[in-house]
Amino acid sequence: MNDERRTAEITLRTFVTARWVFLGLVAFGWAIQRASADAFAWITSWLPPPPEPGGTAAVMVTLALLNLATQRWILRGGRATTNLAGLQLVIDATALTVLLALSGGLINSFTTMYFVPITLATQVSPRWTWALATYCLVMFASLFALAPDGGHSHAAHDFGAHLRGMWVAFAVSGALMTYFVHRIAISLARQRTELARLRDERTQDRHLAAMGTLAAGAAHELGSPLGTIGMLAADLEVMDTSERHEAVTTIRHEIARCKHILHQMASPELRLPTLGRARALWRLSELPGELEGTAGEIPVRVAMSEAFREPEARSDQPLEVLGQILRELVSNAAEACRRRPGSSGVQIQFDRDRERLRVEVRDDGAGMDAEQAAAAFDPFFSTRAEGEGMGLGLYLARAHLRQLGGAIELSSRPGEGTRVLVSLPLRASLEEAPRPASG
What we know:
- By secondary structure, the chain is an alpha+beta fold.
- It has two domains: 3-157, no CATH class; 275-439, Histidine kinase-like ATPase, C-terminal domain (Heat Shock Protein 90, 2-Layer Sandwich).
- Helices cover 60% and strands 9% of the residues.
- The chain has 13 helices and seven strands.
- It has helices at 3-35, 37-44, 53-75, 82-101, 115-121, 126-146, 159-235, 241-265, 268-275, 306-309, 319-338, 370-374, 393-403; strands at residues 282-283, 300-304, 314-315, 346-352, 356-363, 407-413, 417-425.
- The strands form two sheets. It has a five-stranded mixed beta sheet. A two-stranded antiparallel sheet has the order 1-3.
- The protein is rod-shaped and about 120 Å long.
């Protein structure tokens, strides 16, 4: 059941309860009349002129049947809607008009009861609130036609009784409206509490997702150097002295690379957007330096626009995170170039405007068909040979960019290469960044 239907059901139950209370009061009055005519006469001296019995009974029976039908076929059947709730209030306003017309018309002091359905309509929707207010105004005006003499036929009913009736009407109307407004206030307070709880849970979920993304990113980037270390370590015993020396040098280089990756994962710059602390400004011209050695022997050509080179071209987005994303893109592009003989290498274009940074990574490697390109951002999807990749690179890149408020687009054709465009705002939003959960 969606939220709108649930709200409509709660509202309808409130209306049904209010209608039963009203019918109970009328039945109580009739019971007093049967039990003691004198007591009933004293009570009615405080109220408007006595209603016409037959018409009043018909209205009471109609409302009772409506209540029973609403409970059986609408509430139990799960068919509650805001429109049905609004129509119920229209029926109540109509019934009130008939009762007023049967008991004095315009001189009836209980005309203030029109405020009750208007107040209840606030629980339905703003549209129905305005509709009920307009309808009640029309119904009030219709009393001039239903009782054209203005109620003068009840002139014998003294003015003191009318004033006392106004006091009773004020008390009843005020009590009902106070009760329902209080119910509305309690409902809003519960909604605010629930919203705060859901917001806190969402923050915690985002923290867990961020840690999961961070761990997966570390595993992905560490996979390549650790694989190289494992392969060389297994062959050390069969190498000659010069090969062993080169292997040890490579192993040391790969260990240093692992340490660098772990340092990047634990760096304050990476945690900065998550913690929402004050941000430093990083020069964009330092970003290409994060890509050194990423493509191996594949040539990489870097181009930077004049706007990107300007000294004031800075960003509060963490360069470590951007570097991690771009290293993955360049690594993928270099691998595609290796699978296509005669490839000219990877081209990287850096550009910016006043609000966004754009980086285009283009290669003329093996490329991908439409099906592969569509699945490129799916987790564990890879075009490399089995065992050579985890298939998480582009998936993690997009996850990081979404956390930073950015986007990534990919287009590719088999045998022609791949183009990836990354864009993200130069200024990260503190409001959008997840905040640490309390406690």
